[in-house]
Amino acid sequence: MARPREFDEDAVLDAATVQFWSRGYEATSVRDLAAAMGLTSASLYNAFGDKRALYERALERYVERGFRERVQRLEHQAAPRDAIVMFFDEIIRLSVNDPHRKGCLIVNSAMELAPHDKQFQRALNRMLKDIEGFFARCVTAGQEDGAISLDIDAADIAKSLLASLIGLRVLARVNPKRELLEGALRPVLAMLDAKPKATHATRARRKS
């Protein structure tokens, strides 16, 4: 019979996430992780496997507690266009209020690991597709209710919003100034604005 774990798994995964998020994958050693998690190296390996497996667990936890929680909340509480604006408002607030300029763990991973790790590249692509999917759902619903312009294809707007999100997160690691980030985002959000000419008849013609 397996012995029960003598540690709080949520707490130690949170500690590992902080280490990877602050220092990156390559610069974080197993010794660093074990010290931060309050485990011996042997216990770490027994519980989570190697450093790569632990990193994947930490990243998935980051996505679940950050992006997925935010998306679920916004899609249930806000109108489609408002959900997009509120999403970016929260990202800018997080970036500005982060004294250590850690950025986004997803974006950091994409820059550090994806270029030379095909398996990890596939995993990150799925995460980025999830983010793009959130934007696509909001844009499509916003176009249907008349709050978002029909002048640009919903899929193209979603891709542009994804690119803007990644760019903002990288920019914030260098210069996390609210006026800079909001200024960079403003023209992107402007493309969402519904035009008066986009009447129901116009939308019907474009869909036909």
From TrEMBL:
GO MF annotation list: DNA binding
Superkingdom of the source species: Bacteria
Keyword match Translocase: no
Domain HTH tetR-type: 6-66
Pfam families, per database record: TetR_C_13, TetR_N
DNA-binding region: 29-48
Alphabetically ordered keywords of this record: DNA-binding, Repressor, Transcription, Transcription regulation
Keyword check for GTP-binding: no
PANTHER family, per the entry: HTH-TYPE TRANSCRIPTIONAL REGULATOR YJDC (PTHR47506:SF1), TRANSCRIPTIONAL REGULATORY PROTEIN (PTHR47506)
Protein name: TetR family transcriptional regulator
Native source species: Caballeronia grimmiae
